[in-house]
Amino acid sequence: MDQTVAAEQYDVLVVGAGIGGMESALKLGDMGYKVLLVEKEPSVGGKMILLSKVFPTLDCASCISTPKMAASIHHPNVTTLTYTEVEEIGKAGADGRFRARIRRKARFVDEASCTGCQLCESACTVAVPDQFNADLVARRAAYIAFPQAVPKKAVIDRQGSSPCTFECPAGIEAHGYVSLIRSGEYEKAHRLVLDATPLVGTLGRACYAPCEAQCTRGSLEGTLPIRRLKRFIADQHAASGEELGIEVAPPNGRRVAIVGSGPTGLTAAWQLARLGYAVQILEAAPEPGGFLRLAIPSYRLPTEVVERDIDNVRALGVEIVTNSPVRDLAALHEDGFDAVLVATGTPRSAPLGVPGEDRLGVVGGPEFLRGVKLNEPVEVAGRDVVVVGGGNVAMDAARVARRLGAASVTVAYRRGRSEMPAHHVEAEDAEREGVRFAFQVAPAEVLGDAAGAVAGLRCVRMQLGQPDASGRRRPEPIPGSETTLACQLVIGAIGMAPDTAAFATLATANPNGTLRPDPDTLQTGVPWLFAAGDVVHGATDITRAVGQGRRAAHMIDRFLDDRPMDGFDLRLPAVDKAAVLARQAGYAWRGPAADATTLSPAPLDFTEVEAPLTEVDARVAAGRCLDCAVCSGCNECVAACPVEGCIDLHARDEEQDIDAGAVVLATGFQLFAADLKPEYGYGRFKNVITGMQMDRLLAPTRPFNTILRPGDGKVPERIAYVMCTGSRDETVGNPLCSRFCCMYSIKQNQLLMGALPLADITVHYMDMRAAGKRYDEFYEQAKAMGATYVKGRVAKITEQPDGNLVLRYEDIEGSGTIVDAEYDLVVLAVGVQPNLEPGALFPEGDLTLDDYRYVAEPDEDLNPGATSIAGVFVAGAASGAKDIADSIVHAESTAALVAAHLERARLREPEPEAVPA
Amino acid sequence: MTGSSAAANARRIGVYVCHCGGNISDYVDVDRVIAAVEHEPGVVVARQAMFACSDATQGDIERDIRELELDGLVVASCSPKLHVTTFRGVARRAGLNPYEYSQVNIREQASWIHTADAEGTTEKAIALVRGGIAKTGLTEPLEPIVVETTQKALVVGGGIAGMRAAIGLADLGLGVFLVERAAALGGHVRGIGAMYPNGRDGGRLIDELAASIKARPSISVFTGAEVIEKSGSFGKFSVGLRVGGPGSETLTVEVGSIVVTTGFETYEPEVGEYGYGIDGVVTLPEFKAMLDASAGPLRHAGRPVHDVAYVYCVGSRETPTKPDGNAYCSRYCCAATAFASIQLGEADPGVRQYHLHRDVRTFGKYELLYERSRDLGSIYLKFPDAEPPEVALEPDGRLLVTVRDLLTGGERVAIPADLVVLVTAMVPRSNTELTGLLKLPIGRDGFYNEIHPKLRPVETTVDGVYIAGACQGPRNSSESVASALAAVTQSAVILKKGYAELDPLVATVDAVACDGCGKCLDACPYGAIELSAGVATISETACKGCGGCVPLCPTDAIDLRGYTNDQITALIDGLVGEAVA
Predict the structure, then answer these.
(1) For A404-532, where are the alpha helices, taking DSSP H only?
(2) Min CA distance, A899 vs chain B (Å)?
(3) How far is it, in rounded angstroms, from Cα A82 to Cα A36?
(4) Nearest CA in chain B to A876
(5) Per-residue confidence at A335, pLDDT binned at 50, 70, 90?
(6) Which chain A residue lies closest to B22 (C-alpha atoms)?
(7) Would you place residue A509 in the very low, low, confident or very high pLDDT band (cuts 50, 70, 90)?
(8) Burial letters for B253-283: b for 16+ Cβ neighbours within 10 Å, e otherwise?
(9) What are phi and psi for residue A247, nearest 5 degrees?
(10) C-beta separation of A669 from A852 below 8 A
């Protein structure tokens, strides 16, 4: 054990703050012992606080629980930690004490400053089944467990990063904006994207959407159209004429120069301007935007969309100076820029490196595309065009050539189709637009005609050898396999390179011309000089460029503020998709949005090929989101919270060690999962509910304020109870009786007869186990009130078209025949399953469980509550099914054993002596 | 305007009306209550809450007390039994004297009992709250009575529960006097062999406990002893004991708490009841003793026992056939019978056993006993509640049990048997003298009654007197031990600190006005009043604040703190609306 950190010292650690744990903790506190009470849920109270009334006194469960709950956080000797897991418990040393590691789960809400106002809850855009209402209704991701929660502090159910958000290289809260669209908050969704980048419309069209590849719904019916949803909000915003609505800090008096106005430069400028910097962008080309404006064809990304996004940046006061190639970075610094960011990308084409490359009619891909965008196109009409390369630039060039009237367009690529680096949709669309592909051919020579113009491309056929460093199989020429592609125009699109010759004196450059700043801080060897984007990494894509721009802005700000240059990537780990799918059992099939791309085999113009989502489509599409991480990261709670700094969506779990002289396991039980009895139809038949659900329907904090059946909201007139669901039943592996189901059913029978005087209540039972003080009298009272009790196990339940249910059973006491009886609502009296957590707490494996995996009490006759480990005790239903009254007595009894153990330990305790370390 | 409302005018009272999550607000119009009382004299703030007892609302009230400098607090919610300590705690935490708080019960006294009359119940709630406000207008700060506690406990009854309680108390450093009426410790369990649920031998368990007691010098054991006198109160009782039968030695012990573990008696069937009295018809304890004494197949009256019939619920759940009989279920007997049948089945695999029951209540893990019993061949038949089996002696000397079996379509079945076992109930022990001495409350079932099965499961209405084990109601041995240890916990809570705080809501005597007539002495059920020098004096620690003496005093010399005559008058004025313009 780590001796350097002093663990907090307690007399007793109580695990679980249900009724048993609270009772033990409070009694030990009353005796003067220092108690740590740890509860994994956000509130103390366990299952009891969720109940309506309790048998046989019919006290309301809240009234009995709330004083104990309040006492658990006000008691001077009891420290209560909610939303905290005990991870493991071991021996602290030779003196019999225990050391426990506890993990305080991130609430994402500061417990001390939360006032319980619930504004975050109203603002939250995510709804998930409410476990505190037995899943009858939904709750928000930001929530307070229930009205009587102690502490009454919000918690945000944020299980990690949703896969879409986690995957985005640009750091955009994908799940967040989808969730806002689902709520109809399009402007807020737009602002959430703006929080990362000004390029909303651009990314909504030209992004390759790595998020969609990660969408959990993708493994069901198909991914959400996350990119098109982004386009939808960009279009909505453009049409609305609304202000950006982005917070901008007041000018801080410092200036930053950014060289290059591509996605990296624009994003960095945007972020820095929002932080109060005066930013100037210097762009070599006549138009800003880099590849967005000068390469990506407008059938994919219309020029006006890019210009709108660039206007976003200008709106923050960023000055963009075009036709201004920068040759001298030091001069910029001397001119008063506190920092300079180089984000010049990869503007140059890589040469083909074959003879004849300098002929008229050979052009680089980026240059070709740029000419079109600047209205200075290369002559294409009627010519046969060969595009060399298999990347996205090659696809763009080929499709543009089709639009410019080429007689034919052939893409020549040296490997096979599956090795092409172009996004598969780009390649497929190119093919659908009439582009031909020649695979496994490499250019050997550009052939010329008499005038020196291109006449063809001589190629060598290739075969694929062993995989190379990129993982793709290396193409090798097949000797003597030469062939010629006749053409008049060759577009070389085999790669792009930076143009950094002018910066090389200040920034370290790699042999390929890319710069080499620190990969985390993006700072070069010259402190005020930063480099980011493709000029560092080589050609990537827009999202990565945006991500680099954000990182550069963050680091420049940290640098100029003289703060540590960290804290950029605060993403929580991605949630496990399998776990997300596992909890979706009840979700309906929802088809994906239809593809809206219109392609012509012979495209004639640059009209955008993809249609926007309609508002209805967008809402339906966003509604398919599975809320993988539960919290979407939409930030609405942060905006709504009246206490500055109370909500921190980047909080992390915190672990700490504590020492205790004794441990009480009060981890309670789990209710039987009723869908494990498929013949009763729970989960399939909406009007089959569990006993816990009925208790919620009856509770003072009931979800519907009346008793109704969930299928159609009808008030039930004939209600049946099926006892022993999951108990006394070898078919589900549980031969034990759950002890309290008979009694809670009798209680519910009485409450139902009070609430619905005309309803008929029938209970199908095996033995009515009303064994306890005043229990049988309570049973007799229910019979006298009119409930009917029928002996015999129900074999099967079927559902009628109107939602009614037919129970089949053997009428043992009556006719002795098989009977079908129809009811409006069926309540399954589900029983108890062991909570398996305590066994896992002791890695040394010395906690003995009984045959049914409850915590064993080896000396139950004389020391109930003592376990197989001296100093570890059990209270309440963790050692076997108990009703509330028995749990309380058991917990008080355990307290006496704990106190005796502590007293013995105290008397044995030697006088402390100074021991040299 | 009366003087009391003038006094109230000077006060700063906060009023909180609780919805109790619908328990109140479904019937009482809380908005109207607030509107009706917010301008009452002295009221500074009136608010409503979904659950006044919730921690959040407690926090709100505390804030109001501090920020609005309240000097009086009224919460209109449920019975003070539930929450008076909750809201006194709220007051204390906010710096307000806890006794400046009054709880008004608009749930048990309004919403729950007038569910058909929303208008009437709202008006009643308004009147009750007004009364509470008027009474609170006259509160004064009071300090709790601090009692030094004697760090010793008395355990009455030396069965398994009492023995375990004594050890538990001693382990916490408390001195213990363990008193047993019989000549030896051990009670019922001492005579039982193997017991469910774990098959351990009752006699050995008792031996183990006896050894533990011997090893603890802080436990003094008195067998053949009885409690004959009790005085003092919570934290400081004097208890007189007689040791060794009438006319023998008596002594007095000083203790801080008393744990009563006097156990149960076995139901004794009347002669003729299910054939009781016929040779071969035995009770479950008698049968168990036969089993424990026998090795291998059982013999009775010199003959082998081939067929055994068990008749369940003898003395329990009797009302269908005996309206004034025991209504309760004895809880332990189904499992005990299943266990006995396993014992016999294992000793004699050829034996035939028939269980005539109404419901087999082998709850929880005891279900495994039921299963094992059936695996060993026991046959279970269910008879109608109102049609119990009949037991007759056949001419051949065997027994014949006739029963209608509901599990085979109500067929009448005749079962010849060598032994009929009457599964007899646990009944309350007759202990009139002790009950009277300790003023122990008795429930409808005849067993001692705890204050509340969930809130205070081993406490009685007499502070410092606890009950545990089967004197509280039928239960098995390990359950008795658990409740005994719960009583240990409860004793330790009050005794370990060395002092305890009592409510100062006690009666006081104006010595000048008192003429020493002594009428109050007879009225006091707690013996808290005595005459000295011609004047009544009331022991603060013995007085329970019941107020029974107050109206009897011909000179109005007695007043009850917290419920003074002026306060009650003001309360009544508030209730009937006279104090309100």
Answers:
(1) 424-432
(2) 7
(3) 11
(4) B482
(5) very high
(6) A700
(7) confident
(8) bebbbbbbbbbbebbebeeebbbbeeebbbb
(9) -75, 135
(10) no
Structure tokens at A764: 């199908």
Report the distance separating Cα B254 and Cα B364, nearest Å: 42
**Rounded Cα distance, A138 and A586, in Å:** 13
Phi-psi bin for B27: left (phi > 0), alpha (psi -120 to 50), beta? alpha
- % of chain A at pLDDT higher than 90: 85
Q: What is the pLDDT of residue B8?
A: 46
Residue in the block written with tokens 């030990």: A28
Task: Name, in order, each residue with C-beta under 8 angstroms of B218's C-beta and a sequence gap of 6 or more.
Answer: B170, B173, B174, B175, B176
What's the pLDDT score for residue B61?
A: 96
Statement: residue A92 has pLDDT above 50: yes
B209/A813 Cβ within 8 A: no
**What share of chain B has pLDDT > 90, as a percent?**
83
User: What residue of A is the nearest CA neighbor of B410?
Assistant: A813
- Dihedral, CA of residue B65, residue B67, residue B69 and residue B75, to nearest 10: -20
Q: Which band of pLDDT confidence, cut at 50, 70 and 90, is reported for residue A161?
A: very high
Pairing between β-strand A805-810 and β-strand A818-823 as defined by DSSP bridges: antiparallel
Q: Is B203 exposed, middle or buried (0-12, 13-18, 19+ CB in 10 A)?
A: middle
Average pLDDT over residues A339-355: 94
Q: What span, in angstroms and rounded, lies between the C-alpha atoms of A873 and A894?
A: 7
What is the 8-class DSSP label of residue B109? Answer: I
User: Of B53, B319, B457, which has the smallest distance from its Cβ to A66's Cβ?
Assistant: B53
* Chain B closest-CA separation from residue A752 CA (Å): 15
Lowest mean pLDDT among A423-427, A455-459, A574-578, A909-913: A909-913
CA dist B483 and A772 (Å) reads: 14
Cβ-based neighbours of A633, under 8 Å, separated by 6 or more: A158, A161, A162, A165, A173, A175, A176, A649
| Mean pLDDT calculated for residue range A716-724 | 98
Q: What is the mean pLDDT of residues A352-369?
A: 93
For chain B, say whether A51 makes contact (Cβ under 8 Å): no
The first and second tokens of residue A245, run together, are 């609505």
Q: Is B441 exposed, middle or buried (0-12, 13-18, 19+ CB in 10 A)?
A: middle
- Taking residue A912's Cβ as centre, other Cβ atoms within 10 Å add up to 6
**Cβ contact A695:A50 at 8 Å:** yes
Tell me what the mean pLDDT of segment B145-151 comes to.
92
d(CA A80, CA A75): 9
User: A896, B486: Cβ pair inside 8 Å?
Assistant: yes
Q: Taking Cα atoms as reference points, which of A3, A10, A90, A6 lies closest to residue A659?
A: A10
> Distance between CA B575 and CA B102 in Å, rounded?
15
pTM of the model: 0.90
Smallest CA-to-CA distance from B544 within B145, B258, B172 is with B145
Q: What ipTM describes this predicted complex?
A: 0.89
To the nearest whole Å, the CA of A135 is away from the closest chain B CA by 20
Read off φ and ψ for residue A303, nearest 5 degrees: -55, -40
Residue A911 phi, psi dihedral angles, 5° rounding:
-60, 135
Q: Would the pLDDT of A916 be above 50?
A: no
Angstroms from B363 CA to nearest CA on chain A: 5
Could you give all domains of chain B from N- to C-terminal order, each with its CATH number? 3-142 (3.40.50), 148-263+429-500 (3.50.50.60), 267-425 (3.50.50.60), 503-561 (3.30.70.20)
B435: its two tokens: 């009950």
* Peptide linkage before B197 cis (omega within 30 of 0): yes
pLDDT tens digits for range B45-95 = 999 998 888 878 888 999 999 999 999 999 999 988 878 888 999 999 999
